[in-house]
Amino acid sequence: MMNLTDISGGDASKYRLIGDRVLAYRFAVPHDAELYLGDVLKITDSVKGLTFFAKVNDLLHDCNFADPKWDTRPHTEHFYGIGEDVFILVEAMPLGYVGGDGAFRKPRTLPAKFSRVERPEARDFAFLSQVMGEIEVGVMKTGQGVLKDVRVALHAQVMRQHMGVFATTGMGKSNFMKVFCASCMQAREFGLLIVDPHGEYVAGGRSSSGEATMGLLHYQAGRDGLAVFSTRSEDYRRRYHLDQLYLDYDDFRAPDLLLLYEHSPPQREVVEMLESTPGSDVIDFFQSTDFATFDAGTYTGRHPRIANDLKNFSPSTLSVMQRRIAGMMNRNRGFFRRQGSSIPDILKALHENKVVLIDIPGMSEQSELFVLSIITRKIMRSHQGEEAGGEGEPRQVLITIEEAQRVLGSGSGSTRTFREAAMEGRKFGVGLCVVTQQPKNIDARVLAQLNTFVVMGLSDRGDRDTIASSAKQDLSRLDTEIQTLEAGEAVISTIGIPFPVSTRIHLFEEYIADLNRRPAATPIDDGLEKGF
């Protein structure tokens, strides 16, 4: 009979490193130890004088018994007691180590055998404060808890190298984006463009669970870092000091139609033929021409060049394009007009490193993409012009694309503007913030351009595999943790922070309350009517 006694907390065989790989640690802990996926642990190597850090990525029951079926035999408890030979085997992913100089390095060496494993304290992560950036988003998470003194903040200078935010519905994507916006308003390190067709970013709205939320206007201490261009009523705009959004005919280019409609090959040829033609000329030509009698040879209207370019197209193709242009104008008539555009003011605000919010509540998905396409093209052309002028480092802008699979999906040929920004934008100071619930539907070539990944809960294995294969840091061994993330939690992989950081994202309402209490804050209702 084998009746073993329970282990004591001082058992020398537990909490000691027994792994044998530089990129995978193993150690045993008592059978009743309370450890969780994602726990960050400290490994003290007294032989080399180094302190290693590792993240728990799997937990298994194990034992030292030779009988592999000991725990399913009849009367197991009579013959086997739960003692020192029964334990939890922990598998952990090395994060790196800190040497005597206090610098953090990647895990290119092993801790000595049987090095002591223990829980770190906040002061053990002092090195992280040296590698964090300016754009704060949350606090470091470890297992079920957080290290409230370890703030997680992204680096502003890497935003031109594109960011991806991946989250299933209800996992806190909108809250993250508002926290990100508030930090950008505070830091003023680059311009951030975000188009909001739901009207939730200005003064708040409802979360996916139906709870009331605040908006960016509630962050009054950072109000100088926000510019809002809105299609709302004059009374609303005056109440909250918002600018009116206008685009004019010359902002438009024929390829913008590719986002709004499915096109046949001849129709696509018409678009390509007119790509460089000013939008006002294209609109005037199609508004003033009767294609039932159109003949380029006898055309006497105001646009003979366009008529000559389109002389080989059938009247039916041109009539379809005419109806589509008319539909585009009618759908966007609330902000699309012959002359007078907000684009110069939008560019000015972005180049002043403000958050620029395009507030178009109630507008269709087509209108959202229409606005975003035009502004993105204008930003790219402006920055390409700066590059050609050789005036030093280009100004930095980050463009947010919500539901990005609509325009950056694999096989889509109608999104030239966004693909150009994804592939070439970084050298002109233009980055994309790609937000999606379905990363597997984003073109792999676009994902490969992203250098910052904010991964919230993703239940679909295909999505998680896509993320793991595209991230610059190894996320494959964090698959189980990502699958079990709760709302408001994320794994963040970015340049400048030496390992993927599990993060508890700030709750937006609490975060802006904290920001508003910091020095130089103005009253939350300053400049606004009472109530939202």
Automatic annotation (TrEMBL):
Cross-referenced InterPro entries: HerA-like, HerA_central, P-loop_NTPase
Keywords: ATP-binding, Nucleotide-binding
GO molecular function: 3'-5' DNA helicase activity; 5'-3' DNA helicase activity; ATP binding
Highest taxon above the source species: Archaea
ATP-binding found in the keyword field: yes
Catalysis: reaction(s): ATP + H2O = ADP + phosphate + H(+); Couples ATP hydrolysis with the unwinding of duplex DNA by translocating in the 3'-5' direction
Residues of the Helicase HerA central domain: 145-379
Record's keyword annotation contains Nucleotide-binding: yes
Pfam families given in the database record: DUF87 (PF01935)
Family, similarity comment: Belongs to the HerA family.
Protein name: ATP-binding protein
Organism of origin: Methanoculleus formosensis
